[in-house]
Amino acid sequence: MTGLTAQTWPIAAAALPFSGVAPDGTSVTDADPALWHDTLVEVADAGFDRVDVTDSWLRLGDLAPERLEAFRSAAEDVGVIPTSLSAIRRSVIDARHGDENLAYSHRTLDAAAALGIETVSFGLHQALSPEQQRQLWFWTVTGHVDDPADWDLAVARLRELGRHARDVGVIVSLEMYEDTFLGTADSSVRLVQDIGLDNVGLNPDIGNLVRLHRPIESWREIVEKTLPYANFWHVKNYARDEDVAREQYVAFPAPMAFGVIDYRWAFRFAIENGFQGVICVENYGGDGLSVCAENRDYLRRHVLPKRPYAPAASRVRQPSGWDGRP
Questions:
Q1: Please, are residues 286 and 316 in contact by the beta-carbon 8 Å criterion?
Q2: Helices 33-45 & 65-78, crossing angle to 10 degrees?
Q3: What does the alpha-carbon distance between residue 14 and residue 296 come to, in Å, rounded to a whole number?
Q4: DSSP string for 224-258
């Protein structure tokens, strides 16, 4: 796939702003499909024709075939295309739930393939701790830290998922997240290289690292090291202030145009290095969907190329077959 422009680039709204708990207290995954329909209507009303099915909202991997078809029908009725799927906090190397999470991840790949979703994002981040859940912003408290002894297990299990994904025509993207094997640029690149499959690349969610209330890697260096391996991209931004002498670090969500990450520069570098993947716009706090819509408009008006551009060859396989609709 080459020659995407600002108007044809696939930009999906994250389902992250939507709760996974229905008004009656039950799981959205177990809810009447009419509730899914209503949420997708909100997505469409915000000007999106694509959605990233974040599984904190709806776990497609846990739906029976007839309910998967009900979701497909709801999306078609609203006119929103399920374009990517983000499975979060289900680490396949979790000491207690790794086997269960691996099985869930395989089901998620099958569900994505059944719906024609070509890109699935997995991560190694684990469930929020009780202390993290008590914070206004959970990232102000350190959560799980991966054990270096689990590196080979991570490679083996993610390679297993990559092979399954390749068999069903899906691309796997690995989401960068602090204190995991995907928590630094160098470690993330090494993990993809060790997995060694051309359909497994990176989701360089730089915002996950920029928001930390501690010293961080240069976001520009993260871009330069990881984007040549990227095949999907969660994009969001944060305002950040550092007082190194006092060891004080503060960050909070901001629209993409106003945060510390210069996405105009980052996308120029990414496209020149072969990135042609789905973009998923995210935001935490407040009216997250409206901020996602502002982020989409910022990308289309000011960042993405106005004319077709032939990038250099990517180091991983990119999605294909976009229909060119804005």
A1: no
A2: 30
A3: 11
A4: HHHGGGBSEEEE-EEEEEEEGGGTEEEEEEE-GGG
- Residue % of the chain over a pLDDT of 70: 98
The span from the first CA to the last CA of the chain, in angstroms, equals: 16
Q: What is the DSSP letter of 19?
A: -
Can you tell me the distance from the alpha carbon of 202 to that of 229, in angstroms, rounded to the nearest whole number? 6
Q: Which residues of 43-59 are buried (b: 16+ CB within 10 A; e: fewer)?
A: bbebebbbbbbbbbbbb
Q: Which two tokens stand for residue 200?
A: 């497994």
| Cβ count within 10 A of residue 308 | 10
For the full predicted model, state whether its pTM sits above 0.90: yes
49-64: pLDDT as tens digits? 999 999 999 999 999 9
Nearest Cα residue to 265 out of 312, 220, 298: 220
Q: Which two tokens stand for residue 175?
A: 């989401």
106, pLDDT greater than 60: yes
**Element (DSSP H or E) covering residue 111:** helix 98-115
- Between CA 5 and CA 176 the distance in angstroms is 26
3-class secondary structure, 125: coil
* 168/326: higher pLDDT: 168
Question: pLDDT value at position 2?
Answer: 53
Q: What is the pLDDT of residues 218-236, one digit of tens each?
A: 999 999 999 999 999 999 9
Q: Average of pLDDT values for 65-71?
A: 98
Q: Map out the domains of the chain as residue ranges.
A: 11-303
Q: Which two tokens stand for residue 173?
A: 């993207």
CATH of region 11-303: 3.20.20.150
